[in-house]
Amino acid sequence: MRIIVTAGAVAAAVCAILLLRPDFLVRADDRVFDILTGAVSSGKPSGQVAIVEIDEDSLAQFGRWPWPRDLLAKVVRQIADRGAQTIVLDMMLHEPAANDGALAAVLSGRPVVLGFAFRFDSPGSAPFSCAVEPLPLAVIGPGTSWGSGFFHPFGALCSPPELSRAAAGSGFLNAAPDSDGRLRRVPLVMESGERHYASLALAAVTLHRHVSPMELTLNPREASSLRLGAQTVLLEGPSCLRLRFRGPRRTFPYIPVSSVLNGRAPNDLLQGKIVIVGGSALGLPNPLPTPVDPVFPDVEVQANAIDNLLQGDSFHRPANLPLWELLLAASFGGLAALAFGWGRSWWNVLIVLGAVPLLWVGCVLLLSAGGLLFSPLPATAVLLCQVPAVTLVNFVTERRRAERTERQLALAEEQAREVLRESEQRYRRLVENINDAIIVDDAQGRLVFANRRFREWFGLEGKDIRLVTLEDLAAPEFRDAVRDQRVRRTQGKNPPGQYEFEGVRPDGTRIWIEALVTNVEEDGRIIGTQSALRDLTERKRIEAQYLQAQKMESVGRLAGGIAHDFNNLLTLINGYSELLLTRHRGPSEDHAGLLQIHAAGERAAELTRNLLAFSRKQLAQPKPVDLNRLIVETQKLFGRLIGEDIELITWLSPALGRVMADSSQLHQVLVNLLVNARDAMPRGGKIAIETKNVEADEDFLRRHPDFQPGSYVCLRVSDTGTGMSEEVQRHLFEPFFTTKDPGQGTGLGLATVYGIISQAGGRIEVTSKLEEGATFLIYFPRIQGTGLAEIVAQDVETQSKGSETVLVVEDQDSVRGYIDLVLQDCGYHVLQAANGPDALALAERFPGTIHLLLTDIVLPLMSGRELAERLKRSRPEMKVLFASGYAENAIGYDGVLTSDIAYLPKPFGPEELTRKVRKTLSE
């Protein structure tokens, strides 16, 4: 992280300096541009530009400068006669002369561009009053004030008006070097007042190509481009053209003036070209250093500018490019910082340094392809500054690390001695505090070592363990086995390394122990054993509970199976007895006997329901229940459950609200609580059952924060038994938890109570103390609005007869016949089938509408539920009524019937059957 921060800070500092653009950085940028432009091809001259020079020989032959105007007129005439298309006079003729008329006469009618100069020396210069036509230039920009788009001169040095008016065009000669004294750019357009004037090169090209008008585009920072007809010239700064020099001095064809005047100049060098007339003799030009030559005459500067414009081939550098260069530098700096921080190998440094030449090559390629002058200096400066900074930080870091290592080595020896001193103590603490018992004995079985856990188990604290053997502590029936294990191991017979036995503690209690034994060897012979002993008592207790629960589950399955078959028999007994009672209403011996048969059948049906509740195979059918009525109806059963030595007291609120629950399941809750209370009072006592309405107000919610506001019905069951400890109360509702001896309880009673109450949306709480009894408080949400009478009224159908078609599917022939008899008596058309496949075939053959499918849930070959699903595909309008006396694998995996399922529990009488059929058909 230190490396990354350092590299990032260096990158940020360098970028900040570059953003300020001090003079030395500007000069360094110019040198970088010179290197880049020198690395790319300078291109070839267009062949349309030639230079007629006033050299030393010409001055020697025709006299010192300035020449008479008639001599200049002769030069212009000779050049024009040799076929020059455009003549450019790279000279200033601002002083009037005697022969101006002769020169004006030659200029008139010929494509000659005359030079002049703008003045920038002081605001007091002579105002611009030249007879020079302004450019027909359309300026496109963000506003009326062009700002930095132009140079704004204070005055001008112009040719005499007679000459200016005679020339076809005029152009200014101004060209200033950069801050390092080298000429790289020339202005193409200047603004004076509200008019714009062309440079000598621009005037020559527009005259040569007859371009008019022109369009100059500006942005808020600079002039960006100049459009000449179909050609666009990229500019920078105040309308400047960055020159692409075709080479050093004398790259273009040079022809002395003396050769022209003497008639020795070849016509092909001047024919159809732009001919620039200017001085090259010592003292005539104002030579300036350029990136390609330290002495470059003015006339060749103009030649390069004209050639660049003719070919549209120049360099350019937009004003916003420095910001992109800074962004690139910051990006490279960030990547380099991550590379330095990722690893401290010299390869990272080489990779970062290798990015520098790649960056320069990329800039050269960019310049060569599009003329865009992108500077690699910012990114190069960032990378090159990061390397020494990171190297220095690495050096300091490594030096500090070496010093730290030396100090650590100095402390290592002392720490090693301290470790040796503490090693034995740590080992002893580990062995002493481990939850398992650890012992080591010799070949004779005498203990050599025993940790604290083993000593606590068998009360050996303060005693000599060498007088004790492991078999002495085992239960009598396990001593021979433990001894045999030790003897066989010392004899090298490799008995199993894991076995179990029971140990006897000093107070006589037994604990199950699992022993993991390994040999202790010395010089290849066994001198004893080492054993890890684990207490398995709790696991054995849970295993015993699980076996007991499995046994009870088997009994429950047996009870459920018996109830299933018995319910079919009771359906026949109760059904036919009820039918006979309706036909023999008068007093007779048969009528009294039928009443006894029916009453016995009803008691048997109640017994069946209790069996199903016991085996937990009964579907939950929540209905409005009056707890007071439930308690009163089952009070006789309570007496048989609790015995005569226990007094049962009830306080039942007369205005008690109703709850939505399954009455048989609530009966099971009461039975479980009373049985537990009875078992907690082996010498007799009192059980109190109380009911009352409870409103969950602010005070109640403060004492019971997990309750929601509303109305509740409270059932309170308390006893005067032995009570429970806090530890027992924490595990009271956990499955398989019991305080009874093995074989006397499953540990599922209160877990079942908790599940039933939760299923009904209620809560259960328990408070108890040892020897002070226990109190169970059960809260059920009180139902509002519809009362029991209204719900019963909704469930009772005034009409039981009908004419619809009912398909009855029942595997018991007698039950099927009974259902057929009852339904036909009520006017229904009945179809019968013994199983699912027969029912499907019958439904396929039957052409009419089957209004109702009445099917047993448990059927051979196909369940009633699957049969209903398959029939509903072809007969979606058909209603379904399920009947069963055994709910396992039936409907509702959570044990609760949903509201959209019609269910008729067995056994059922004729009235129940017809009422349920009518109700299902009517819904």
Q: Characterize the overall form.
A: elongated
The end-to-end distance, rounded to whole angstroms, is 75 Å
Low-confidence stretches: 785-798, 888-896
Percentage of residues assigned to helices: 40-55%
Computed CA radius of gyration, to the nearest angstrom: 58 Å
Structural class: alpha/beta
Q: What is the average per-residue confidence, as pLDDT, rounded to a whole number?
A: 83
The strand count comes to 34
**Share of residues in strands:** 15-25%
Count of helical regions: 28
User: Biggest sheet: strands, sense, closure?
Assistant: 7 strands, mixed
Describe the SSE topology:
Layout: H1 2-20, H2 23-39, E1 49-54, H3 56-62, H4 69-81, E2 86-92, H5 100-107, E3 112-119, E4 137-140, E5 155-157, H6 161-166, E6 169-172, E7 185-187, E8 189-192, E9 195-198, H7 200-209, E10 214-218, E11 223-228, E12 231-234, E13 240-242, E14 254-256, H8 257-261, E15 274-279, E16 288-290, E17 293-296, H9 298-311, H10 321-342, H11 346-370, H12 377-433, E18 437-442, E19 447-450, H13 452-458, H14 470-473, H15 476-490, E20 498-504, E21 510-522, E22 525-535, H16 537-583, H17 589-615, E23 623-625, H18 627-633, H19 635-642, E24 646-652, E25 659-661, H20 663-679, E26 685-695, H21 698-703, E27 711-719, H22 726-730, H23 749-759, E28 763-768, E29 774-781, H24 788-795, E30 805-809, H25 813-825, E31 829-833, H26 836-845, E32 852-856, H27 864-874, E33 879-884, E34 902-905, H28 910-922
Parallel strand pairs: 1-14, 1-15, 2-3, 2-15, 3-6, 4-10, 24-26, 30-31, 30-32, 32-33, 33-34
Antiparallel strand pairs: 3-5, 7-13, 8-9, 10-11, 11-12, 16-17, 18-19, 18-22, 20-21, 21-22, 23-25, 26-27, 27-29, 28-29
Helix pairs in contact: 1-10, 1-12, 4-5, 7-9, 10-12, 11-12, 16-17, 16-25, 20-23, 26-27
